[in-house]
Structure formats: structure tokens, C-alpha cells
Specification:
The structure is a homotetramer.
Chain A: E1 19-21, E2 24-26, E3 31-35, H1 42-55, E4 59-61, H2 79-92, E5 96-99, H3 106-109, E6 115-118, H4 126-132, E7 139-142, H5 149-161, E8 167-171, H6 189-196, E9 201-203, H7 205-209, H8 215-225, E10 229-233, H9 251-271
Helix pairs in contact in A: 1-2, 1-9, 4-5, 8-9
């Protein structure tokens, strides 16, 4: 039974995990998740969703519960935010990934989300991990900013061992002494995960760098390193974003990125001897 | 009203916070918290409590909910552990500090604990912080192993702004490249907290170093740096400890440490122009 | 005059620096430097040089002076090693990059080297930087394993301000808490250098990861991130290497990497709207 | 023969090394080294030397060669600075410690210095280590800001194995993610050195914190942790210091620190069962 498979490879020959969310298949396609840091309004969310869909994104991200450094910062719209995400999903067909931060919220948030995200600050929130481990929905598990590969896979194991085999890992930068970037995006974790685990791994270059001007380069590098997808912050009007304003792409920038990813994706498929995989939603 | 005071000093002249738990006063006395990493049995817990009480500890620590790296490690005795702690408290008179990891457990755990501990992995578990912010019991907030001073004080602010003014900070080592010690104990955070906040700060040299042989030196250094107390792991039979075996002091070692702290404490009081403060429980 | 140009861009419109070594042009071509960690014998060095040349490398690396953690480890062959490198150059036509560690050696080592390397431990060895700043040969300046972007560019500035405009930067991994890899290869520094400096930047995935199995992925990622080249360790008989045995590629592995880089290079040129650039030595 | 003793203890029973410089004995007395970051003028240096001598310092520090991040910063007075230090020594009787950064300078700098300092950026400058290894003068070896205990002791080994048994280690803070302090002073390295090596270890809280207001606390903590001394920056007019202005103590502050160290020193001697050791120069 799949649920009893460990996060770490142990010389088994069961192949890599493929995890489905709507028509998206992590571990098979290169998945592009895009959307605003936080859901701010219906208009902003649906407009952004339509823009990223048009550019070729496969999935919509948006935060309804925002873990913020200060208690006085905007904390997200909560249930109202989830309802807006639902409308954006209906408007575009994009499946939704959204963060859950409290074990008491897991069951009802899972009614709105196609994939539940565990944020970097909650990677070792074991109560939360056990709770999402009871779901039959995929979980996107971000790497703790202070976390080793081994610790990260152990956190995936908390979810798997609770019965949910559908974990997608997401590298989002670790904390180092460098201050030019917000975090240090550790792309070497991508091939490291590939050789130690069967779980898919995507990369978040928005949080991973915190610097708009280098997100495109790092997205391309993530794909070349073998990642199964990326997650990027896009806002229909970046200058007005209520959080992470400095790292939100405009729809135009995102469109440019998607064009380059499509070209690079064909090249990578050739290198890996695969038939061209899907990139961008809505393709047959 | 105290609850509205910010964690950070802003040039106010309200003096340092003093936080009471039983007959212990954080911020006034030098507080020594001792006990096993985890509650394993009634016999082990009560015996250890009696030993540390005899040596002069002011408070008993012991984990009933253990956040462990792997889901297959011992996770603690839960409610049964709390009941054992209650017995140990009755047997010795020592107030209890124990960790809470899930917001759903906060209200009932608080019936057993005199001080609730938030562990390093949960420092930014904002749901949990908000929940303990509703209590009128002190909270011991450990520093995240990846956390800056500013982020830590913001987490204290989550608790204060929710209405609970009684936060005790606890330095427990940060994550660096050094591998000789388990973490790097950052004693410079002690005077840094003193100049930026009114909250008391204690030091955990057991987790901070992970190396039994240097805990005594770092305990003395913590006192000299101006800490308001220490928290150390003591086990009546260290070799049998179910977690953190390598950093658990024997009662004898702990007794030796207490003697040195008493001598150094008198010296520090002289340096600071204070009348001798209490060190060790049960003194008048 | 070129020598007075600062390492940091200051809104000037002078374009990116192109630095020549033999027939190699850093900042224009994608340069592949390959060879053994240390020169061990004439046979080993020439054989390795011929293998990497055949696979398409542009330049030969090899250490004659090895800065080793322990004084009891192999310290390199010194002058004898340089003479062997000279023979390998004659045998293959590949220009040579080799490390210099002492300011007293700079002038005579520069008679053998086409590019002088400053290693990570010497990034802030200012006496050495000033000395190579007097040469009219290119300098490959590795990033200190503890160094920020700003500090690194300041070290380049030491060389430039001494009169030598030909500095090539090389990312080789920084020191973090992660232990799965030997260092954490920071590819985000590549686009960061591109937006703050006109100097070329290459990547060393061998030291950057210390793990043979992920060097290929990180080489591809470096190219996709926009690097101007890579430097990799190749040994004709990796199992016998006297240093860094665990990260030395066999000629076969290196050949496989070169094939993939060639395919990816064409793709990157297309993305960047450039005509196909040279990859691999010996092309016209 | 002493010179062949390894830096690391290997279960030998030869006791801890005691290293003499003038009338100062590292490893036996608690040594206080004080003085300006850099020698700026004869008046400034002699005045500062007289002030720290009056307050009880045992040794004078002062830089004639300054390794600076930028080539455009003040680089020190060189030979002229050494001659000023010589005058300050004659004026006060304090032995001198000063940094050497270039192997070509070692022999003539050693004519002026009682102890030669190797700075944090040069910890792994092996040419320099081998050169000071030929001297029969003590060497103060600062820990690299990126260096593990094991690497540090290996650098000491470079000096010892070259024939010079007189190495004093100096902790000066490591690089972490915390930005409140300039570096993170790792006091746990003090007892770690004590249990793995016979060499004396002192602490530099000025560079270790970069924050004037917490130097006193960290100096006391260093003593309590078991350090063999401290090195602090003192300037007769801190506001005018040409480098590290923000961490230079005034003579008054330093005087206050010395009084506290004297009280604490007596207490530590009592704890360690030693007869009162000397603190402050000029005592019989």
C-alpha cells in the first residue's frame, strides 16, 4: 500500500511518486504555480488568476492565512479569502494551493483547497503535519529555512506515516549570512532529493531570493537542476501588494518567464530522453 | 495596563518585568529549572524532581509532548505525563514548566503547568502563540534556532498583544556551521535582550550545547552575562534517558553546578550592587 | 582606462567585461575548465588533460600549491607541478589555471599560468590580492565560503585598483548548516553579480557540492542561471585521486556532461537572442 | 620536545601550555589585552596605552597593518605604526601584540612585537602560518569567522609543526544570520578548546559583538566560561577612531570593566580552587 512507503528511498524499485491535483500531475509535468502572496480582494485575485492562466500557469496560489513576523501586520482574510479562491478557481479552472497554519483549520480548509501548503515556519509543527496526514489531498511541504535535507524528509514522513502518501516538497531558500538575497535558494537540494526520495520537489524562487530581478534566472536554473515545478508570486498590480511587494512579478514579467520556460522545457526533455511534457495549463 | 506594553522597550521607564510562577520570580531571582527531557515514568520523574529540589533547583521541567525529528521516535506520554508531573509537584513543591505544541491542548495543559513552554520549532507557530496569549499563566518562549532577536521579540509580541503580559524568553542555541556542539549557544543575546526589552531571559545550555562536559561552564557564563536563570536537563539515571541522553546531567553533576552558581551568584550580586538574591528553592 | 573601472557597476554603460586567456574569452563564451584537483604526476596530468580536451573542455585546471586543512596532508608538488602543467598545455593546447597562495610566488607562478587562481581561503588575503593586481594576467577570484556579495566585489576591487582589470569571479559554495552537501552552492549569486558588476562569473559545482552524483545537475543549473562557465574536477582515475576523491568526475562522466551542456547551450543562446556561442575547445 | 606536541590533546598528561610574553603568562594568569584598533598617531597610541595600563591591562594591542574590506579604507601606518608601538611599550612597560598579514613582513615585524597576531581572514593563510611557525615568539591565532573547532586546531598545528609551540587561540565571533551583533560570539568554544587542546584561549568581545553596550557583559561571561583572557578595543577618544569606532571603549568604560573583572576573577579562583591569580599588570 502506497501510504506505508517511506519518504526516503531505501533501494526500492517502485519509481518516483506522481501526485495529482485536478489535471496537474506533480512528478510528471513541470508544474507552474502562480498567484498573489495573499488574497486581498475578489477583483485582485480573479484578475491575477486570469492573467497567470493566460500566460500558461497550471495552478493558482494565494494565501488566506498569512503567518506574519509581526502581529500587527495583515494576517489574511481567512474564510473570506478561501471563498474568493474558490471563485477564482471557477473562473479559470486552475486548481488551488493555499496555506493552512492551524490543525483546527485543516478539515474545513481542505474543502476549498486542491493542495494544502505547510509553510516554512510550520515545517516541524508536528500537530499540523499529523492532521494533514489524515487527508486524502496532496500537501505541499515547504522546507524550513533552517532545515537539513534529513529533517525535511522526516517531516514528510510524519505525513506519510499518518496515511497520506501525497507530499510535494518545496525548496524556498535557507537562512545564511548573505543579505543581498532574502534567503539563499539551495538548488542543490533538488538533485539531492531526487537521489534520496521518490517525492516530487518544486522550487519557490520568489521567497527563495526576495529579489524580483533574479527570479527569472533562478526559475530557469531550477528547471535545469531537475525540479518538478516552480511556485512564483504574481500580482496584477505588484506596487499595491499587501505583502511581499518587492518580490511580486507583474503578469507581463510572468508571461516572459513562461515563454522561456517553454523553450527550456523542450530542451530538458530532449536531454532526459523524455517525450515533450506539458508546460502550461489548458493543453490537451 | 500591563498587557498593552510592547515586548520592545521604547524608551519607557516602567522598569523590567518580573514574572511570578509559584514562589519563583523571573526577572528578580536567578531561577534554576531542572528536570528530565521527557517524563518517562512516575518513579523516574519524582526521583529526579526530589534530587534537583535537594540540590537547590527552583522549578521542575519535564516534557509530556515531545516534538521529535522522526515520527518513529518516542513522542511523550501526553496526559499521563502531565499527571505524573502533578505528582512530582506535590512531592517536592516545585512549580512545573512543560511544553505545549498544539493550540487544541493549551487550555487543559495549562491546568497542570505553572509555566507553558513554547519550543524552538514552534516559535513562529502563530496559532499556538495566540492561544497561550489568552491565558493568565506565564509562557516560556524559546528562541527559534534560526531566529533573529527582532523576530523573537515579535513572537513575544504575539503573546503580549493577545493579552498575556507574562513572557519569559529562553535562549537555547542557534544553528550554525559548527558541529562540535549541537547548536551554538548565543550568550550575547542576553545583554541584547536586556537593552531592547523588559522581559526576563533565561538560558538552556543543555540544548544550547548538546555536550554534557561543557554545560557547567556555559551555565556560569550565562549567569555572568546577566541571564535571569538557566534551564538544564537532569535525569536520575542519565544512561537510560529516552531522549537527549548525551546532554542529561546526573544529580551529582547538577549538585556540583548548583554549588558553583551559588558562589558566583553572590559575586554577581556584589557586582550589580544588589542585595544577595535567592538561589535555590525553599530559601526564605 | 580599463584599470580604473570599479568592480561594481555604477550606472556606467561600458558593457560587460570580456577577459581573454589564450583563445578563451570569459564573458563571451561559456567556458569549461576541467582537470584534477592536484597535479600528482606527469602521466596523470597529461592523460587527464587529453581526456578533458577530447570531451570539449576549454581550459585545464590543476593545483601545484594545495591549501589543505591539515599540515600533514599532501601539499602539492610546487614548481615541479607547474612544469607538469606546462607540458600538459603543450600536449593539448589548453590554457592553464592554477592556484597561487603566497605573494612571494606570484611573479614566477605567473610565468606558467594563463590564469592565476585565488582560493576561497585567500579571498581576503589582501597582500596576495595586491600582488596579483600588479600582473597583466587574468585572476580567477573564488568567493570566500563565508563571504557576502559585497565583500567579494571589494576583493575584486583590491585587484582592479592595483592595476589589473582582468578578474573572473568563481562561486564555489558557501558554508551553511546543511551537511548533505559539502558546501551550499549559491547559484543566486550569478544573476546577483550580473546586476551589480561587469565582471564574468563562473561556477565550481565540484567544491560547491562535494558530491559527485549532483555535479551534472548543478552544472546545467549554473548555465541556466546565466553563468559564464564552470570549473569541474576530473581525474583520469578518480579512485586514486590524492585529494577530493569523492568529487572527481571520470572522463566518461565529464564527456556526458559536455554533451548535455552543448545542447543546453544552444537553448540558452536562443533564449538570450544570441548567435550560438562556442562551447568546447578546438572550435574555430 | 615541546615543539612536537600536537595542538589536539591525545590523552597525554603533559598539562596545559603556559605561554609567556614579557611578564605575562597566558594559560596561568587571566590576561587583559587592550588598545586601539589601529595605531593612528604617537599621541593617540601612547595616551591610550597609559590609560589602559593605569586601569590594569597586561598588554597593549594596536594595528599597524589593517586588513580592510575595501581597498579605499585606511590600511594602517605600517613600519611607522610599529615604531609608535615600540615607544608606547617603553612608556608603559606593556608588551605588544600586533597583526602581521604578509609572510614577507614576519621577520621584521617580529622585532617590534612581543606577540604576533594572525587575523580571522588569515586563519587559513598557510604560507603565513608556516612563516610564524619559524619564530620563537608567541602567536595569537584568531578563529576564522567561518571556522570549526577542528579546522582552527589544524591551523594551530601548522604553526606547531613548523617548530613554534607558542600559540594562543582567540575566539572573535563567527558569522551567522543574526544581524543585531556584528558577529556571534561563540563562548562555548572556550570549554570546547579546553577539553580538546592544551593551548590557552582568550576572547575578543569587541569584534565578537561589534556593539559597545554589551562588551562588558560578554567579557565577564568569557571569564566565567573559563577563558584565559580577553582582548578589547580601547581608544583615548573613541569618537575619533579611524576604524571600528562603534566598538571602541573609552578609558573610563574600560576602567569600570577592569574593576568588575577583578571581583569576578577572585570568585572564579575560589570556584576553581586556585590561589588568587594576577589580574592587571604591574603587580608583583
Amino acid at each position: 500500500m502506497n501510504a506505508l512507503r517511506l519518504a526516503s528511498l531505501n533501494g526500492d524499485h517502485l519509481g518516483r511518486s506522481v501526485i495529482s491535483a485536478g489535471n496537474v500531475r506533480f512528478g510528471e509535468d513541470f508544474v507552474v504555480i502562480a498567484g498573489p502572496c495573499s488574497v486581498e480582494s475578489e477583483e485582485q485575485t480573479i484578475k491575477t488568476a486570469q492573467e497567470v492562466k493566460a500566460a500558461g500557469a497550471n495552478m493558482l496560489r494565494g494565501g488566506a492565512f498569512k503567518p506574519r513576523t509581526s502581529p500587527y501586520d495583515f494576517q489574511g482574510l481567512g474564510l473570506q479569502g478561501l471563498k474568493i479562491l474558490e471563485k477564482a478557481k471557477h473562473a479559470t479552472g486552475l486548481p488551488i494551493v493555499t496555506e493552512v497554519t492551524d490543525p483546527r483549520d485543516v478539515s474545513w480548509v481542505s474543502e476549498y483547497a486542491d493542495v494544502l501548503q505547510i509553510g516554512t515556519r510550520n515545517m516541524q509543527n508536528f500537530s499540523l503535519l499529523k492532521e494533514v496526514g489524515k487527508l486524502d489531498k496532496p500537501v505541499l511541504l515547504k522546507r524550513g529555512m533552517y532545515s537539513t535535507l534529513k529533517e525535511w524528509l522526516n517531516c514528510a514522513e510524519y505525513i506519510l506515516s499518518a496515511g497520506n502518501p501525497s507530499v510535494i516538497l518545496c525548496e524556498r531558500g535557507i537562512r545564511t549570512f548573505e543579505t543581498y538575497t532574502r534567503n539563499t535558494l539551495d538548488l542543490s537540494i533538488v538533485p539531492s532529493v531526487k537521489e534520496t526520495s521518490h517525492l516530487p520537489i518544486i522550487v519557490d524562487p520568489s521567497h527563495g531570493t526576495g529579489r524580483l530581478s533574479i527570479i527569472e534566472s533562478m526559475s530557469l536554473a531550477a528547471m535545469a537542476a531537475g525540479a518538478d515545478g516552480i511556485m512564483v508570486e504574481v500580482h496584477c498590480r505588484p506596487g499595491e501588494a499587501m505583502c511581499d511587494k518587492d518580490q511580486a512579478m507583474s503578469p507581463d514579467m510572468f508571461g516572459g518567464l513562461m515563454k522561456k520556460l517553454t523553450v527550456l522545457g523542450s530542451c530538458m526533455n530532449k536531454l532526459n530522453g523524455k517525450s515533450p511534457h506539458r508546460l502550461g495549463a489548458g493543453e490537451p
